[in-house]
């Protein structure tokens, strides 16, 4: 059976199945396959695709190259300044 024939058959079967449990199981299987490019999730639980991750990494590398970020030691000094300014 060709891929097109299998798809057509699945469409027909889904239209006649009324058992919600079976439909949810099929949905879970298909969603897992359809989202196989998901490489992670945000803290809110939203999926992160490989493409989005690559874009964000490129942006981060550009920020580093342009000096738009602080080093860990710079941040520690900044926090120390906040604390001393808060005490005054």
Overview of this protein structure:
There is one protein chain. This protein has 88 residues and is mainly alpha-helical. It has 2 domains: 1-34, no CATH class; 37-88, no CATH class. Helices cover 69% and strands 8% of the residues. The protein is built from 4 helices and 2 strands, in the order ααββαα. It has a two-stranded antiparallel sheet. A hairpin with a 5-residue loop joins β1 (38-41) and β2. The longest helix is centred in the middle third of the chain and has 16 residues, at 50-65. The protein is elongated. The mean pLDDT is 89.
Q: Concise description?
A:
The chain has 88 residues and is mostly helical. Helix content is 69%, strand content 8%. The longest helix has 16 residues, at 50-65.
């Amino acid at each position: 059976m060709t891929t097109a024939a299998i798809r057509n058959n699945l469409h027909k079967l889904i239209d006649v199945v009324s058992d919600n449990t079976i439909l949810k199981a099929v949905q879970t299987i298909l969603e897992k396959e359809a989202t196989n490019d998901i490489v992670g999730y945000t803290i809110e639980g939203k999926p992160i695709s490989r493409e989005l991750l690559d874009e964000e990494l490129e942006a981060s590398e550009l920020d580093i190259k342009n000096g738009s970020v602080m080093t860990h030691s710079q941040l520690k000094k900044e926090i120390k300044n906040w604390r001393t300014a808060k005490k005054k």
